[in-house]
Amino acid sequence: MPKTVNRVLLGLLGVGLFALGGGVLLGALDLQRHWDFDVPGWWPFRGPDDVVLGTEGRTRWREEGWWWPTVIAVLAVLLALLLWWLLAQRRHRLDRVLVNGEDGEAARLNGRTLEDVIAEEAQALDGVSRAHVRLTGRRTAPTARVRLFLEPHADPVRTLGELSRETLVHARDSAGLDRLPSKVRLREVRHRAQHVA
After folding, report:
1. 122 Cβ contact partners less than 8 Å away, ≥ 6 residues apart
2. How many Å apart are CA 81 and CA 178, to the nearest integer?
3. Which of 4, 23, 122, 165 suits a disulfide with 131, CB 3.0-4.6 Å?
4. Domain with CATH 3.30.70.1350 in the chain
């Protein structure tokens, strides 16, 4: 779904920018006079001397009390939509993973379930306080993004080795995947100092 929305939005944005740029170029090069054709009456760019936004357009509502709050509100909404779109790209997670079944048919595995299983097994490792797992990528070639929150006594090198050799290998084999590339982030859990009375 996000890929389809991205393609549609980028396509519409591209068509709009292409039309705007073509219209400005059409007027700037005076192509309608050179090629002897007419443009519609509402067309703003009729020749090389026309500007994108004339003096009247720039100053028409400047003295109105509602103008600047409206401009700021529209720009704020546009910024919020663009930030939402940017964050939506980063949050994409797999809802299903396609694996090859024994009969040659592709089977669907619930992505959230696989994430939970990996997180539970990772959290059982010595020195791991919490674990968060997110599957991204393509349904046929998922990538695991793992965040481990380590206790102060944990050995990061040993924990990372156990995660790679055991937890992720179990997940890969049980899901029937050829490979399961992973990106792991380690963070230390901060504990408040305890007061002794």
Report:
1. 128, 131, 133, 146, 148, 163, 167
2. 38
3. 122
4. 96-188
pTM of the model: 0.53
Token pair 């156990």 in the structure block, residue: 162
CA distance 176 to 192: 43
Tens digits of residue pLDDT in 134-162? 888 888 888 889 999 998 888 889 999 99
Q: What is the pLDDT of residues 54-110, one digit of tens each?
A: 777 777 777 788 888 898 999 999 999 888 877 776 656 777 887 766 666 777 888
Q: Are 160 and 184 in contact (CB under 8 A)?
A: yes
Count the Cβ atoms, other than its own, within 10 Å of residue 45. 17
Question: Quick one: fold of 96-188?
Answer: Alpha-Beta Plaits (3.30.70)
